[in-house]
Automatic annotation (TrEMBL), chain B:
Pfam families, sorted: STAS
Domain STAS: 11-110
Annotated family: Belongs to the anti-sigma-factor antagonist family.
Domain of life: Bacteria
InterPro entries cross-referenced by the UniProt entry: Anti-sigma_ant, STAS_dom, STAS_dom_sf
Source organism (scientific name): Labedella phragmitis
Gene3D superfamilies: STAS domain
Protein name listed in UniProt: Anti-sigma factor antagonist
CDD domains given in the database record: STAS_anti-anti-sigma_factors
Molecular function GO terms recorded: anti-sigma factor antagonist activity
Length: 135, 110
């Protein structure tokens, strides 16, 4: 099993730090298929983008990303220190029209991974996603 | 992410997007395409041959650029997307409105 983590502060950190973390994971775990990589990376970057866009209310936001790979599952935990938000994940399931320029992030997440949950915890706003690996 | 613009014929601009097209780089794509349109090249090809990744922010920028090009009586087409970009286009159904070609040279052959 491989577990990698990063603590981030925005600004100046961006979602590129999450891409870099995943590049390290792919290097350590070369048996993860291309399909699993692109689905997991796309979902995690959508959630990280959400933190950067909505978590920073003017005074910056501290956040952390943990990614774990075991023989059967890829999983990630993303926690931010922004004020608690209420989020109805199921309400964001529908895909906007083809010409919409935003609003697709969470719809993508639900289509790309096997599990996506959001909770307000003592540590902050917490997302957890998991993707069963191809066998 | 780096964007470079080359001219094709009299009114086509080929915008090459090199790297990750995400919320960090999406605003620069919009600016690059806007410059091309305002300088008289409203038929745009975004060459994705060197684009390693695209998320919903990058997709939103592409759609915004498509609208801008059409408002200027032009169009926007994409070339050489990789598997991840194709996945995002298909999941969002944007592959129905954004035509994809194998190379920039083929994009406006019709």
């Amino acid at each position: 099993m491989t577990e990698l983590a990063r603590r981030l502060t925005t600004p100046p950190d961006t979602v590129d730090a999450v891409h870099d973390l995943l590049d390290r994971l792919w290097a350590v775990e070369p048996t993860i298929t291309d399909e699993d990589r692109m689905r997991f990376e796309t979902a995690l970057i959508e959630l990280a983008s959400n933190v950067v866009q909505h978590g920073d209310r003017g005074s910056g936001v501290d956040w952390s990303v943990n990614v774990t790979c075991d023989p059967s599952v890829l999983s990630a935990q993303l926690v931010d220190s922004a004020p608690p938000i209420s989020l109805d994940v199921d309400a964001r399931l529908s895909m906007p029209s083809e010409l919409a320029e935003d609003g697709r992030g969470l719809a993508f997440v639900r289509l790309l991974v096997d599990s996506a949950t959001f909770a307000n915890t003592a540590a902050g706003n917490e997302w957890r996603i998991s993707k069963n690996r191809a066998t | 992410m780096q964007f470079t613009t080359e001219h094709l014929g009299t009114d086509i601009a080929v915008v090459r997007a090199d790297g990750r097209l995400n919320m960090v780089s999406a605003p620069e794509l919009r600016e690059t395409v806007t410059v091309a349109i305002t300088t008289g090249r409203s038929r745009i090809v975004v060459d994705l041959g060197a684009t390693s990744f695209m998320d919903s922010s990058g997709l939103g920028a592409l759609i915004g650029c498509l609208k801008s090009a059409r408002q200027a009586e032009g169009d926007l087409r994409i070339a050489a997307p990789n598997d991840q970009v194709r996945m995002v286009l298909k999941l969002s159904n944007v592959d129905r409105i954004l035509r994809s070609y194998d190379s920039p040279d083929e994009a406006y052959r019709d």
